[in-house]
């Protein structure tokens, strides 16, 4: 058993006062020494947090103790290290950026549990569609899955025509933890796709519960680990080093912050290129110091977890004061 945990989850449910709940949620995380990235929105809650098993248990109990989130499903992974170096709890318009005109609480694709998903993989009438970004499926994806050359979910409407001829097939969407598919599958239904499913809990849950069979490569994650192993049955490497083109599933962010591309770069080339993806980036004056991981924390002067809470409250007060002045 490893000393730390990483918890991935989301839950769509109306939150009437996201600002107030954000402050309460942030304070609980601070008091329990949890680190991670959490989004609170009028449509629900989305987060990845990391800590000791005891801290993570306390967090899951805290979230579930609120009747609004009683049905939340957590994906819990073991880790050798804390997966974050900071805590951010933010209020946003959506819990996953999409701009898609859909509401998962009204309609979405049929949820497939991991075992049912596995059973359908060999169905000749089934089409798998990856709803993640290009740099994510470059390092790992399901065998035979259709992928789009898109950088985020907002671009999905520009790519739906690529699968328009499959509207009469059984379309199964998948992503890292399931959250993107709630809206993506709903959007496909709106576009006339007749039989749409989604992998409930995403790639991570499939790996935890079913061994990850037929997921090629590694799964990109949005924390210090960058990628994680999923397939314990028939693993393989599908990506190549961006520099030398040898098989490689080691993902890094380019050391040049103005580039910051997410790319597979082998350890040897990583050190030779000092974490950069090109000669231009290697000589860029803003290039960050490479430590062998290819993961860079955004600099924050005098960062402390409680500071985020104070800053948020200060901004809300300023906004309320501004509104009062305008109405006077």
TrEMBL record:
The chain positions of domain Rhodanese read 122-215
Which UniProt key words apply to this protein?
Oxidoreductase, tRNA processing
* Catalytic reaction annotation: uridine(34) in tRNA + AH2 + O2 = 5-hydroxyuridine(34) in tRNA + A + H2O
Is tRNA processing included in the keywords of this UniProt record? yes
Q: What Gene Ontology terms describe what this protein does at the molecular function level?
A: oxidoreductase activity, acting on paired donors, with incorporation or reduction of molecular oxygen
> Does this UniProt record's set of keywords contain Glycoprotein?
no
Enzyme class at the top of the EC tree: oxidoreductase
Top-level taxon in the UniProt lineage: Bacteria
Q: What is the recorded function of this protein according to its Swiss-Prot or TrEMBL entry?
A: Catalyzes oxygen-dependent 5-hydroxyuridine (ho5U) modification at position 34 in tRNAs.
Q: What is this protein called?
A: tRNA uridine(34) hydroxylase
- Gene name, per UniProt, is trhO
């Amino acid at each position: 058993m490893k000393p730390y945990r990483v918890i991935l989850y989301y839950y769509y449910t109306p939150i009437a006062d996201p600002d107030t709940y954000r402050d309460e949620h942030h304070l609980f995380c601070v008091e329990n020494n949890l680190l991670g990235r959490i989004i609170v929105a009028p449509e629900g809650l989305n987060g990845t947090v990391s800590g000791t098993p005891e801290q993570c248990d306390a967090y899951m109990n805290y979230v579930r103790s609120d009747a609004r989130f009683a049905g939340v499903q957590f994906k819990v992974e073991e880790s050798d290290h804390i997966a974050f170096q900071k805590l951010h709890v933010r209020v946003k318009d959506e819990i996953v950026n999409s701009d898609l005109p859909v509401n998962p609480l009204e309609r979405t694709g049929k949820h497939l549990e991991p075992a049912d998903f596995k059973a359908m993989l060999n169905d000749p009438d089934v089409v798998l569609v990856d709803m993640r970004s290009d740099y994510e499926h470059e390092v790992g994806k399901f065998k035979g899955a259709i992928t789009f050359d898109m950088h985020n979910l907002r671009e999905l409407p520009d790519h739906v025509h690529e699968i328009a001829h499959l509207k009469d097939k059984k379309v199964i969407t998948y992503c890292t933890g399931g959250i993107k598919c709630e809206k993506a599958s709903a959007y496909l239904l709106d576009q006339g796709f007749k039989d749409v499913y989604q992998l409930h809990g995403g790639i991570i849950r499939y790996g935890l519960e079913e061994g990850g069979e037929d997921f090629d490569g590694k799964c990109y994650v949005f924390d210090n680990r960058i990628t994680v192993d999923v397939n314990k049955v028939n693993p393989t490497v599908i990506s190549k080093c961006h520099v030398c083109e040898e098989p490689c599933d080691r993902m890094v962010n380019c050391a040049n912050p103005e580039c910051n591309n997410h790319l597979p770069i082998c350890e040897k080339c990583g050190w030779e290129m000092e974490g950069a993806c090109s000669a231009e980036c290697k000589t860029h004056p803003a290039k960050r110091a490479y430590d062998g991981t290819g993961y860079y924390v955004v600099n924050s002067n005098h960062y402390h977890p409680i500071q985020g809470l104070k800053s948020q409250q200060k901004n809300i007060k300023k906004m309320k004061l501004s509104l009062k002045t305008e109405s006077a």
